[in-house]
Design brief:
Layout (H helix, E strand, L loop, with lengths): L17 H11 L4 H15 L4 H12 L2 H21 L2 H13 L4 H19 L2 H18 L4 H18 L4 H10 L3 H31 L20 H23 L6 H16 L4 H14 L1 H19 L2 H13 L3 H11 L8 H19 L3 H13 L1 H4 L3 H9 L5 H30 L1
Helix pairs in contact: 1-2, 2-14, 3-14, 4-9, 4-12, 4-13, 4-14, 5-6, 5-7, 5-11, 6-7, 6-8, 7-8, 7-20, 8-10, 8-20, 8-21, 9-17, 10-18, 10-21, 11-12, 14-17, 15-16, 15-17, 16-17, 16-18, 16-21, 17-18, 18-21
């Protein structure tokens, strides 16, 4: 891309950030992500002097970008998720975990919920979809042991989001690896696991408080719920689940050993879908139909991935990211601590429900400053996690309200307070690590 002959600005310029700012403001005002991006593209095209041919080329290039590839992977993963649900692979996994732990106390019930949510959301690559699958199985256990709906909702939210960070094939993991250049192992050990420990630890402390404040005031109605003791795992479901897990582990191990790139995840999804279909003895037409159903459910998000790439390229064309990087770099000096803290606080902008878009924006804005200041990429990854994942816990967002709905709770106030405590613990970790991390890692 290049500036048109009638471009209103000259690169680099902070004015090039106007299209991005318009998108962010529209999202803050409750508009759909895609609507905000499209308006931002229109403004950016006018400011950068782009004609229709130039815009067409920009969209064509976006369709071949790594961002679009990750969108395709997520869509395919959604199709696999539908197959796993139909073959009762997820139900079998949850059943095995519950029975293995032997849930008979509130503590064991909450531990079981956390494990199941991380595992299923990490495998399916979706927060709402993953927790919606396991809720009918887990909620009766929570009800029997007196765990209140708001506690369930709070644990669902943080555990599910940790699953999205841990899952090797989720959009959050793949795009973070892409922008930081970290391997999966480096990302997990250096960023995700430490961050998740503090975030989950904060929520564990918070829900104890929530349980005390809501116990005796909130109750479950179990008319439509499934009793874990009434679940029967058939031999076919058991075999399908075992073969799926073995295939998944082998494919991931092969990818790590042979150092496969992002595109390998798409092949993994396709192979796993074939495994579930064959072992589950599904008709091939039914497999294709189920996959198509899951893929269609993520079509809107794919549009976000393609259009956000065009928007960010327009901002880059006008030198918007170079200008703000120079500005913030001047404010932070050459201090990696300052760069990490600024990226952690400013990075997310509160753009909720478009994690890949957020991460792309943060990488464009702060990547150069992080590199020039010598900030280790594992620390930059922590800044990305802080800027993107904590956004949905500060104010009522669609992710937060979705988990309240799944857990059958209407107590937004207690949900918010639990998330504030949890987010606070993660923020304390980020601040402390920003201060001492550079001295240890550099």
């Amino acid at each position: 891309m290049e500036l048109g002959s009638w471009s209103l600005i000259h690169s680099p310029s902070l004015l090039a950030l106007i299209p991005l700012a318009v998108y962010i403001v529209m999202v803050f005002r409750g508009k759909d992500n895609t609507s905000g991006i499209i308006v931002g593209i229109a403004i950016g095209a006018l400011m950068m002097g782009q004609d229709l041919k130039m815009l067409a080329s920009a969209f064509a290039a976006s369709l071949g970008s790594s961002t679009a590839l990750i969108g395709v992977i997520i869509m395919t993963g959604a199709g696999l998720g539908v197959l796993m649900t139909e073959a009762r692979v997820t139900h079998t996994l949850v059943y095995w975990i519950v029975k293995r732990i032997g849930v008979n106390t509130q503590t064991k019930a909450k531990v079981t919920l956390v494990i199941c949510s991380i595992l299923v959301c990490g495998l399916l690559g979706t927060l709402g979809g993953g927790n919606a699958v396991i809720a009918p199985i887990l909620i009766p256990l929570m009800a029997t042991l007196g765990v209140t709906p708001t506690v369930v909702a709070a644990l669902f939210k943080v555990s599910g989001e940790v699953g999205l960070m841990v899952g090797p094939l989720t959009g959050v993991t793949l795009i973070t690896m892409e922008v930081t250049g970290l391997s999966y192992g480096q990302l997990m050990i250096g960023a995700v696991i430490p961050f998740a420990i503090f975030w989950l630890g904060g929520m564990w402390f918070a829900v104890k408080r929530t349980q005390r404040r809501t116990e005796g005031k909130e109750f479950y109605r179990l008319d439509d719920m499934q009793n874990i003791n009434e679940i029967v795992i058939t031999p076919r479901e058991r075999t399908t689940t075992i073969v799926f897990l073995l295939s998944f582990l082998l494919l991931i191990a092969y990818g790590i050993v042979t150092k496969q790139g992002t595109s390998y995840a798409l092949i993994v999804m396709i192979i796993l879908s074939a495994v579930v279909g064959i072992v589950g003895r599904m008709d091939i037409d039914h497999v294709v139909e189920s996959m198509s159903k899951g893929i269609a459910s993520q079509a809107k998000m794919f549009v976000v991935f393609v259009t956000i790439d065009v928007l960010l390229n327009l901002v880059t064309l006008g030198g918007g990211f170079d200008a703000i990087s120079n500005l913030l770099g001047g404010a932070a000096g050459s201090s990696p601590t300052a760069v990490m803290l600024i990226a952690s606080v400013v990075g997310g902008f509160g753009i909720e429900a478009a994690a890949v878009a957020e991460i792309k924006i943060i990488a464009e804005m702060f990547g150069a400053a992080a590199a020039s200041s010598g900030l280790p990429m594992t620390m930059f990854a922590i800044a990305i996690l802080s800027a993107t994942r904590l956004t949905g816990g500060i104010y009522p967002t669609s992710n937060m309200m979705g988990q309240l709905g799944i857990a059958q709770s209407e107590n937004t106030r207690e949900m918010l307070e639990a998330n504030w405590i949890s987010s606070g613990a993660a923020i304390v970790f980020v601040i402390i690590w920003a201060l001492i991390g550079p001295m240890i890692l550099t």
